[in-house]
Amino acid sequence: MRSSRLIMVLFALVTSAGACGTQTIGPTATRPTSASPTTASTPQAAISAEASPTALSGSPAPSGTVNLKLDFACIPDSWALSTGPSVASDGTNLVWSAIGSLANPNLPTLPDLVGFAPGHDSVPHYVYRGPNRDSYINAIAVSDGHYAFVVNDDQLYGSDGWGLLAVPGAGQKAVLLDKGDLAGAPQVGSIAMGGGQVIWTAFHEVAGVVTSEIRTAHFDGSDPRILASAPVSQTEYWWPSLDPTGRFLLYATVEHLSDGNEAFRIYRRDLSVPASTPVRLGTDNAATEPLSNGRALVWRTINDNVINWGHDLVLAAPDGQDPKSLSLPDVGLESIGNRYLAYYRLSIGDLTLYDTATGTFDLVEQHGDSDPWQLQRGWTVVAGDLLVLRRATNTSTPPPQVCWASLPHVP
């Protein structure tokens, strides 16, 4: 395994009250920060705020872009202030890592999970309170009131160690599903959840051989299985996700060829058929991180690192046929809902969604370099018909805003 190229996702939390956490992926890439304003939220209750796009002094939005007017509501400021850099949504529930204490601004830890159901809950609530307050929660997934997340904790798992935990429901005891056993190996970078199970990729030592695996287990830790396994000298598994039905598992590979080159490919496996054979999606040898909403399949094209910025996003039929480029260079952090695809682009100060139903780009917010508000990278997530984002400034006031809006349904 070429650990220098397949490094884990690193999180660095900027700790001033108005600053937001940053996420660095890959050895040379840094994730972008966009700009966006709205009126401030109040601590007493959620509010509604309509974004007002303004002129952008940087790169333009994609051609054919139309404005998408959305009504945003925000959680209370006191909860938004402690939000960490990681967030996940299943379209109904929202969950994020939370700072354990603001008393030490030089080194905040992220031992807790906070949950919120937009349109249902009046205020957020703790889903999980980490017993070791020095731990850090990063990768997160949520599905129908069940949660899974990765914890970095030197005391529990050793230096650079990690544990994958699942919480069957809010307030219930966490169950350890997996933990790292290889120094310097990438940790679990993404988690798929659905159909009563958690699915993840990991690197382990098996009979003295460094091995890449796709693993699964129920939320309570029962029925643990290995869906795929290969020496990392041959194949590495990355980016598991599920289609909306939970029937099809999508994942990416790094395949080390006999000529010394690498092929980056994506596959689909039918989980309803025991021991089903994976089916390759499309013919692209530079594809990674497949996502599907049942209507469309999207992937990111790369050349040398599955966790770096992509060259473009490609949209295709669910089986990978009829691919077309979306002409989005320097792209990453994509998520897909029932209708819309969200993504980040390097040095682009706007929030634009791609409508998979109409094939158009829809502009949500757009601002110039002088705008004091910025979008927290990694926090703009689309799931189902829900759009979630986090706004912050570079000063301690006003406080950051965690906001959401309902997206138009599929016509």
What is the number of helices? 2
Helical fraction: under 10%
The beta-strand count equals 34
| Poorly predicted runs of 5 or more residues | 1-59
The proportion of residues in beta strands is over 45%
Report what the structure shows:
The structure is a single chain. This protein has helices at about 75-80, 155; strands at about 10, 20-25, 35, 50, 65, 70-75, 85-90, 95-100, 110-115, 125-130, 135-145, 145-150, 160-165, 175-180, 190-195, 195-205, 210-220, 225-230, 235-240, 250-255, 260-270, 280, 285-290, 295-300, 310-315, 325, 330-335, 340-345, 350-355, 360-365, 375, 380-385, 385-390, 400-405. With about 400 residues, the protein is mostly beta strands. Strands 3, 4, 6, 31, 32, 33 and 34 form a 7-stranded antiparallel sheet that branches. Strand 16 (about 195-205) and strand 17 form a beta hairpin.
Topology:
Elements: E1 10-12, E2 22-24, E3 34-35, E4 48-50, E5 66-67, E6 71-74, H1 77-80, E7 83-89, E8 94-98, E9 112-116, E10 125-129, E11 136-143, E12 146-152, H2 154-157, E13 162-167, E14 175-179, E15 191-194, E16 197-206, E17 209-218, E18 225-231, E19 235-242, E20 248-256, E21 262-270, E22 279-280, E23 287-292, E24 297-301, E25 312-316, E26 324-325, E27 331-336, E28 340-345, E29 350-355, E30 360-366, E31 374-375, E32 381-383, E33 386-392, E34 401-406
Parallel strand pairs: 5-30
Antiparallel strand pairs: 1-2, 3-31, 4-6, 6-34, 7-8, 8-9, 9-10, 11-12, 12-13, 13-14, 15-16, 16-17, 17-18, 19-20, 20-21, 21-22, 23-24, 24-25, 25-26, 27-28, 28-29, 29-30, 31-33, 32-33, 33-34
